[in-house]
Amino acid sequence: MIELAKELEGVRSVAIAGHIRPDGDAIGSCLGLYHYLKKNYPEIEAAVYLEKIPRAYHIIPGVDEVRHEIPQEIDCDLFFCLDCADEFRLGDAGAFRKQAKRTICIDHHISNSGFGDVDYIVPDASSTSELVVRILEEEKIPFEAAEALYMGIVHDTGVFRHSCTSPETMEMAARLMRRGIDGSKIINATYYDKSYYQRLIHGKALMESTLLEDGKVIFSFVRRKEMDFFDVETSDLDGIVETLVGTYGVEVAIFLYETEPDMNKVSMRSKSLVDVSRVAQQFGGGGHVRAAGCNMKGTAYEVLQQLLAPIKSQLEGGEQ
Hints:
Layout: H1 4-7, E1 13-17, H2 24-40, E2 45-49, E3 78-82, H3 94-99, E4 102-107, E5 118-121, H4 128-135, H5 143-156, H6 167-177, H7 183-192, H8 196-207, E6 210-212, E7 217-222, H9 224-230, H10 240-245, E8 252-260, E9 263-270, H11 276-281, E10 286-287, E11 291-297, H12 300-315
Parallel strand pairs: 1-2, 1-3, 3-4, 4-5, 7-8
Antiparallel strand pairs: 6-7, 8-9, 9-11, 10-11
């Protein structure tokens, strides 16, 4: 456990960043810590650096204060790296890791071997947002921080449905709710509400999905030209793989979307038999036992065939 007050002694400037293509947990943990520092340590100059924030998260306070450009000259006492399994996934924000006087890494990815001067890595935790709540003084958590951190926990637990949800997770969520936030509003606005065109692309992905391995695996793929046609961003595809894995009889869901010709972002989810993080790691990715991803080159069919081999091995009781 990190003693935050002790880590902040003598600190004048703090930079906070998460992984590229930020999701709910990366955004929630970064903004939650930012608001806490802003409220309780006004003498510290704090800033959050993230890539473009998906529109679904724009109701969270402080999104308009997030910086997207890394300064050419960095003079930073302390860098908080949140929800990032390795320093390469920091993207341009990796410059802080190299130039800040000290780095604290807070994360819950099982593949994170630790790359900070101080590491707080708990693979069993539901989310990085949960870990951030653990290091904060409950009575000092401002409303804005509570909203952001609750949103982060909600997204990485699939609204408290995933196996990573523990009694501690619910206790941390309760701490945030006691700050007066409207949990239902946050869940609906950032997780369930979708635009008409998001619904169309989700529907298309479901309609064109395929069952494989006697119905234990489900697969779907969205092409770049289809995203352009429906005028949706990559973040608008969030939730498709979770819907796929909820199909009766399915153990593993594989969802791809094309990022450029013959290059794909892979998302995988499983229920109980397959460790998809092990599969993802074989292809340079990572994540969690039940939720993982990677980037793979090739046609959708070629990528699918490569993924099916280790998945089928695990389904049959192998160690691959």
